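Hi P.,

Sorry for the delay on this. The queue was packed all week, but I finally got your sequence through. Input first:
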Amino acid sequence: MRGAKSAKWVVGAAVIALAATACSSSDDSDSKDKAKASGSSSDGIVRAWWGDPQNPLEPANTNEVQGGKVLDMIFMNLKEYDATGKPNLEAADSITTTDQQNFTIKIKPGLQFSDGTPVTSSSFVDAWNYGALVTNKQLNAYFFADIDGYAAVHPSDDPGAKPTAKTMSGLKVVDDTTFTVKLSQKFSTWPDRLGYKAFAPLPKEFFDNHAAYLAKPIGDGPYMIESYTKGSSMKLVPNPKYTGPSKPKNKGVLLKVYTSSDTAYADLQSGQLDVLDDIPAADLPHVKEDLGGRYLNSPAGIIQTFSFPMYEKAWSKEGMDKVRLGISMAIDRKTITDKIFGGTRTPANDLTSPVLGATGGYSDTLAGDSVKFDKVKAKQLIEEGGGIPGGQMKLGYNADSGSHKEWVDAVCNSINNTLGNNKACVGAPTGTFADFRNQITKGQMTQPFRSGWQMDYPLIDDFITPLYATGGSSNDSKYTNKDVDNLIKQANAEPDKAKSIALYQQAEKQVIKDMPVVPLWYQNGQAGWSSKVSNVKENAFSYPIFTDITVN
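Then the structure:
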């Protein structure tokens, strides 16, 4: 089975993105005809809920869930993660090293992209160099920072940064099926990162005719894109060139864009949608009965948080550490998760996920009192720190997902009750996920905002480095701490896994102390499905395993 999602961000994790012109609704009299025209379960096609990605589908420029869902379907990486999150070789025949700094990668011979062109060593090397080059402005460039020569192609994240080279010195093509990688320092778990879709190979067309590629991306995975209408739908069909282990057991997937999770849920009940992996919070208490048991609720590598804009002086000046900590302690996580999410969320005790297990870096005590609901202490800390800037905190979220308003209102109510001021915290919606993400990545947020994380790969490194290292690819709060950066570097270089994890946890403790982000709860993966399909499962990243779904 196939695993990884690329994601992040999710910003969130089950975040949902819905386009303004979306389609399909249960009260749309034309919806059945539309579905029939574009594919339906009756012709072997699985119809699934979706939201438009933030950016065009370039692997190194996609770090949110909806785009990652598609990349997971159309690309096969050197490694892929199974349903439990375990990384296995797929496009790679072998990845070897004698010193944990210099790696030799051999890819399987005969691999092809869906357009029939070969997958070679250059397909990976060229893609990684493109992703790292600062002038290409790829959101996931940071994932290549460990490769020797990165500093020459990506000297800084400044908009006007000038590279002194176009390719990284640490990448060398040996022949069509062999290439070598030299890292800037030892990194024992680096190969396990290679299932993340930022490391996907790219076909020749990506470089020769970029516009054509963006209009209809080409990959080497189990599916290929047949058609895509932004704001409406994307149809994927089995890729006949794919030779990997996850061959589709259906005739394709129709991803349908929705502007409301409530509408999608209604369509699922009426049989106009087959798979929905975002059950509205209001429907969780009765979803099993509604769907006749066709519902799953399983642990996933997802944590929900909200972040402070540390680049705004109002939230980062002296004393604000107490205010940020007090806000965290003013939140009654248990009541909120019980009342709103009905057992599908668990109050967070660290910044990772229980799916890692204790040996993988999860801790149920690491955050300590900072995440314990304590009204007296919370109010004291907020007052000692100088109070909420401007007297009111506006907690930002995207309004196109079914559940964010509910929990944001609940979090604000808890903070307001603690402070005895019903206007101390209010929700601040943005219409769509894409607009919300654009504001965040441009550093335009002036108030705290919903965040969260869906793991890219099952290592504690993935919950810490991209989010809290200085310049991290998804460090949306722009948090920076030299001690954290140094501990991350030490952890990367440490060949002993247990010692490496201990160093990551030291970094994590410092982040918790600084509190640039408030841990809220761990999120399960959920999905409901129609009676027209079977074998619906989710992987550890909470993505439906589309290749395994069969149409009845």
